[in-house]
Amino acid sequence: MEDTDQRMSGMFDLDPGPPPAPPQPVGIYGWRKRCLYASVLVLLISVVLNLALTIWILRVLNFPLDGMGTLQVNPSGFSLRGEAEFLKTVYVEKLQSEREKPLYILSDNKVQLTTSDKNGTENSQFVIDENSIEATCDIFHVKDLNNKTQMLLNGSKVTLGFPDVGFPGSLTIKDSVKVPSVFGHDGKPLV
């Protein structure tokens, strides 16, 4: 029977032995934990400061949600309220001022308006320089507010749309002139 007891006690070891060690804590403790919290706090402060400065810059520079400053994006294009400075060439389909307000175009050098065809070939040009205004085109047409022709210039002919033409000085004509009547200024002779 002793044999059986020994076998049984070997099979069912009832002696618990030494107690198990307490479980090791999982995580970061001590100075590592403090450094991690400090770095997260510094990162949070920098994110908040960055957002605050971004909002401040947007407010100071007047950037609304529908454009940039005085430049607003509309369904029909762009609308600029105020002054703008263009550093390079500007291409526009339509340029107009607000109702009952003048449109100012200021240039240190010259203002040049150019039209071109679909191939990019320049057709007509209007240049306002420091001392001159120059128009390069096939037909130059000047109309009054009633849409009546005042002057028409084409390659070979000048047409004036008013009955009286006066010249304050002398006029020299090399070829012939066809007119219905010629008279002197203030009743003075033509010679």
From TrEMBL:
It holds the Pfam family Sarcoglycan_1. The chain crosses the membrane at residues 36-58. Residues 1-21 are annotated as: Disordered. InterPro entries: Sarcoglycan, Sarcoglycan_gamma/delta/zeta. The keyword Cytoplasm applies. Its main location: membrane. This is Zeta-sarcoglycan. It comes from Plakobranchus ocellatus. The lineage of its organism: Eukaryota, Metazoa, Spiralia, Lophotrochozoa, Mollusca.
